[in-house]
Amino acid sequence: MNELKDFLIEQYGAELGAFRAALESIPAEGFNTATVGHSPAWHALHVAEWLRLAVLNDRSPSYAHLGWEDREWVGALSGEPAQTESAGKAVILAHLDEMTGRVLSFLQGLSAADMQGTSFSPSAPGGTRPRLQGIGMHLRHIAYHRGQVQLGKKVLT
């Protein structure tokens, strides 16, 4: 039994579940409405893209919602995203669900040695961080965007 891995899976599952619940509570007609800087659709796609980049280490040129588009390193990653904000609430949530499943499976497959490795983190000096630090930071990043979605609901109502 790997208690640390179990903890990470539990925490990612809980936070992504809470994030999805916040998104689900947004009416479909307001899902593409930018309130606090971005629309709930953008927040969902942003988190899904960062799950792919920061946790799954997918560096394919298929990102459009990283939120750092003014940074040089984003250029190599920019391309046609899997989904766009206009895809509709159900499609975007299904995409987020797919990324959630992939991340939880990835975490399940990590060995103790893998957890001690590094992961891509473009804002860190040298572009990498210790994996546990990076995925912990990303977990807090999801919580931040959940708060943005909740704050945006107050503007919509």
TrEMBL record:
Where would I find the DinB-like domain in this sequence?
17-149
Give any Pfam family that matches. Answer: DinB_2
- Xref: InterPro entries: DinB-like, DinB/YfiT-like
Q: Gene3D superfamilies given for it?
A: dinb family like domain (1.20.120.450)
What is the official name of this protein in its record?
DinB-like domain-containing protein
User: Could you tell me which species this protein originates from?
Assistant: Deinococcus aetherius
